[in-house]
Amino acid sequence: MQLSQIIQFVISGLTAGSVYGFTALGFTIIFNATGIINFAQGEFVMLGGLISVYFYQSLKFPLFPACLAAIVVVMIIGGLFERLAIYPRRNSSVITLIIITIGGSIFIKGSTMRILGEDPMALPAFSGGKSIAFLGAAIQPQAIWVAFVTLAAVILLRIFYQHTILGKAMKASADNREAAKIVGINVSRLTLYSFAFSAAIGAIGGVVVTPMIMAVFDMGGMIGLKGFAAAILGGLGNPIGSVLGGLLLGVLESLSVGIISSGYKDAISLLVLLSVLFIRPSGLFGLARGERT
Amino acid sequence: MEHDGILRKYLPIAILALVLALLPLFVSNYQAKILIFVGINAILAMGLCLLMGYAGQISLGHAAFYGIGAYASAIMTTKYGFSVWLGFLAAILLSGLIALLIGMPSLRLKGHYLAMATLGFGEIITVLFVETDTLTGGPEGIVSIPPISIGKFIFTTSQHYYYLVWGIAILLFVIALNIIHSRVGRALRALHGSEIAAQAMGVNTSKYKIQIFVLSAVYAGIAGSLYAHLVNFINPTPFTLTYSIVLVTIVVIGGMSSIWGAVAGSFVLTLLPEYLRAFQEYNLIIYALILVLTMIFMPQGLVPGVAGLFARLRFRQP
To answer: Is ipTM over 0.85?
Structure first.
């Protein structure tokens, strides 16, 4: 392969990886605050994409307000999901919660299919579609938007966790839920916030990548699975690890498409997932210990 | 005294078997065909129920074993021209073997990690079914799978298959019941209750977990083999994540801790789509709603839930 081809694959891998990274961030935020894995995470990404298109195309909002409105709507959906489906059974077993979030994800997917239809939809690129040449490869301006937003998200999250009361409370809750309750942290409210927050993060990822790949109602499943793989790879519980894991996974996936046939593309992420789970569940930069007997 | 115990133990099953045996006389051909699928789902659900309800493990990739059984039978009988029974044997061996290979590393994981590992495994198998097209026929699948035959007798009609599938299902049901009421079953329930306590009591938890995982996969492989010969044509579609979730739903709704629940769940969730045909487009939404609402309001499932309801009504003071 020529260098320019490799660079092309790496760049498209980084772009896809950013979406996985955003999804992984969502998993990490909820896991950090509650210990739950939200199987519906991928659907929030999908909703961000589809709802922003709906606001832009059907309700004729200008581009940026459409995106912002979509993110807010998805955040509300995330909060509702937590209150209606998770909160009533918050003390239940792992299996119960897993099945609830799976059921929730199917419900969201099915409803979206009914309300917004089955066709893939896209937003226009944020700043035009003319590619930029870079070392023989072509970069779409949208990819730079994706990189920029990802970087901003990582920095803001770091500030949030280190320097705000809410962020510190979330970290405390992740460390030791009981102790957090003792010092007066409202853990159930934290659960609500973390779901809303990670829904918003997922939506941001969906919105910013929709101009490049079309959003469709059933994209959430694979994105969720790969996002989880990225979160585990980077170390579940570590926000920076999540993003790095996502980028790494995206690049691995993209390069493997170049080398092996594209039909196996999805299998690559799944193999990575299984490898990490079997060999080193704490991931590359893991804070949470993998549960093993 | 011994006689009492055996009678009581097998009476409910005998009644079920009798009802099932008489049912085809009262239903149409089409309804019989649906009931065959209930039977196949019941076999799948029983295996999964042993794994989830009794051993307390999660498998979100169970449809993969269903598919492995189906493809094994199909490939053996079409591509290599082996007899149906050899294909059946291949289905059992292959699903069991792959379960062993996957189970050993996976069952060391717990909770969400196990769930994701099984999900990932299921997805990889789906990709393999589609991509290894020289073997599996790719997305188009395999056609002209021969029907089952014993000697000169060929199973062709719905009635034939009905009795075959339910006969096997009842047999597997009895086997499952025997396992539950044996030392293995008690070890499993100890494991489910508290793995650490079970280990402290000397129960080899890893061994039992893997054994039940393999057994549940074999059940699924048997179901897959029956399916392949029933419909004479398979492609990757029925063996995907969607179906794995359907199976988990069946077990959960029927009641994870009850083999009867697995059978009840199969009836409910196979027959329900038939009655919801009017709401075809809302299928997915209704389905998901049933799942979530059951888990929120009756997490122990229908059979234990309803049984508990009756118990409470019976003991209520006037």
So the answer is: no
